[in-house]
Amino acid sequence: MFKSTKPRGRGICVRCIAGLCAAVAVLLLGLVPSAAQQAVAHAFAKASPLSVFDDAGLTKGRSEAFDFGVAYEVVEQSPEYARLKLKSGKLAYVRLAHVTVVNVPSWINSSDNFKRSERARIRFWESSTKLNDFLSGINTAGARWDFEEYFETAPNFSLRLPVVGLDTLDLLGGDRQVRIASVMLPISKQMHDTFENAKTGGDRKLDLYFVLDISNSAKGFLDAALSDFAKMAARNDALKERIRSVALAYFASGYAQKTSAVGDVALKDLQTANWRALGAEKAERGDREPLLDGIASAMRKAKRDGGAIPTLVVLSGAEVDSSGHVAALGKSVSADNLDLNVPENSVGVFAQVTPEPGDALRTVSQKLRNVASARYIEYSETLGADLVQELVRAAEGRRDADLDPKQFAAVATAAHQQKMLAILPRVLRQTSTLPSRQNYALNADWYTVRLWVTLDNLIMSEIKR
Fold first, then answer.
1. How far is Cα 461 from Cα 106, in angstroms, rounded to an integer?
2. Of all helices (H) and strands (E), which one includes residue 220?
3. Sign (positive or negative) of CA dihedral 248, 249, 254, 257
4. 296-325 residue pLDDT tens
5. Residue 111 contacts by C-beta under 8 Å, 6 or more apart in sequence?
6. Kindly report the CA angle at 359 between 354 and 360, in degrees rounded to 5?
7. Residues with Cβ within 8 Å of residue 383, at least 6 apart in sequence
8. What CATH number should be reported for the domain holding residue 29?
9. Phi first, then psi: what are they for 84, rounded to 5°?
10. Bridge partners of residue 281, in order along the sequence
């Protein structure tokens, strides 16, 4: 037994010192891996945050944020858990299903061409078999990509995706080889929610561009139809809440100026908006009304931000010009070559406000370019109500109709803000979905999916740690 040589009450027992050192050593084991706790593998988080634990029984978990694409050192692994080193340096247990474990971490990194807007968009497949069938030509039509990168403005960041698997495909009888990789792709909660909102119609607003025939023969009927429409639209929540903006354009051959556009107006002011900007009224000579002038005038300032569907609403008599010189364009055009330069999801609604017979208005509605769908409403005493219903249908859309990718511009913005790739399903419909979130990641800031991609050396290349 050792004794202290110092006076009693003032010295420190050697046993106490040894015990204290042992206790400190035990505490430090949780902070710094010992020689026996060196990395045996690496793990990529599948989502963030994740639950981490201090014991192998995975009890009393706490939330821990992880960085996408970081290879965390794994010091111990079992069928139920991986014990890894966190950013803080501490060791913690995570459920094995919540991470992807690899022996040697590797990534695909983007090249400088990745930031070029004119480059090809990156395509992704859910299975290597499907990708092989596509590249080999076995079933090109039936094995097309499942998801494709989308952007209007090229990314201003570098891409770094963890590689989970690699393969080489022999094509053309072995004369050509293509490398493919299974990568982890992050999807942020904001990107996922923005996609759901855009495709289900949460953001499916309408920008209404009214084109009104104010000729002497139509004005009385027009006033009645507009009055009924404005009253019914104001009471119809399904439509009122979908209208983002209302703009007007007038046309008539009996005015010094054939057409004039008016800026945004409130829905309640639709029937009282002033059309005197066309100048002094002239006596009409039975000319057909210059509808194409009115349409061109209305759509020149159509919003193209993807936040709403440009919706052309024509209220006119039946006798209109389907061709002629359009002052706003400075040339002669016809209905079938009038280029409106509007998004592909634009809608047209043509309502005949007068009872006289004639097919010219219907002909224009059938031939007009750049309009995804055009609806024609016959004259009736319920024209205002019929118009409301047609616009409600336009806002709700068809579940099996293809959607315009520009409708999803906000998805790319949300992804790029977090330096993530924006992807969309190849088939864009209201029933389309992004890769689903795992149950443990339903409220995560981001989650990952595994997809296959060809390694295009012009855009990306593989690197290892």
1. 11
2. helix 216-235
3. positive
4. 877 777 776 667 778 888 998 888 887 777
5. 457, 458, 459, 460, 461
6. 90
7. 225, 228, 229, 351, 353, 377
8. 2.30.30.40
9. -135, 165
10. 255
Could you list the residue range(s) of the whole structural domain that residue 52 is in? 14-102
Q: Which residues contact 266 (CB under 8 A, 6 or more apart)?
A: 246
Residue type, 285: R
With bands split at pLDDT 50, 70 and 90, how would you rate the model's confidence at 24? Answer: very low
97 & 112 share domain? no
Q: What is the DSSP string of 331-353?
A: EEEEGGG------TT-EEEEEE-
pTM: 0.60
How is residue 49 written in tokens?
Answer: 């945050």
Same domain? For 240 and 375 the reply is yes
Interstrand relation of 446-454 and 460-464 (parallel, antiparallel or unpaired)? unpaired
Dihedral (Cα; 369, 374, 379, 384), 10-degree rounding: -120
pLDDT, tens digit, for every residue of 78-99?
999 999 999 999 999 999 999 9
Task: Give the Cα separation of 51 and 53 in Å (integer).
Answer: 7
Edge-to-edge strands, sheet with 308-316:
259-262, 243-251, 205-213, 308-316, 347-352, 373-377
What's the token pair of residue 346? 């634009």
More confident residue, 168 or 13: 168
**What does the block give as tokens for 276?**
């005197």
H/E segment holding residue 135: helix 128-136
Residue 298's SS3 state is helix
Number of H helices, E strands in the chain: 9, 24
Cβ atoms of 243 and 292 within 8 Å: the answer is no
Alpha-carbon gap, residue 71 to 7, rounded angstroms: 55
Round to whole Å and give the CA distance between 417 and 441.
20
Q: Give the list of residues 6+ apart from residue 245 with CB closer than 8 angstroms, or none.
A: 207, 208, 264, 303, 308
Same domain, 230 and 369: yes
Residue 18, token pair as written in the block: 């040894």
Mean pLDDT of 436-441: 88
Query: CA-to-CA distance for 224 and 381, rounded, in angstroms?
Result: 9
Tokens representing 334 are: 């016809």
Task: Give the residue from 396, 418, 441 where a domain finishes.
Answer: 396
One domain for residues 76 and 92? yes
Number of domains, the chain: 3
Per-residue pLDDT tens for 324-335? Answer: 777 767 787 787
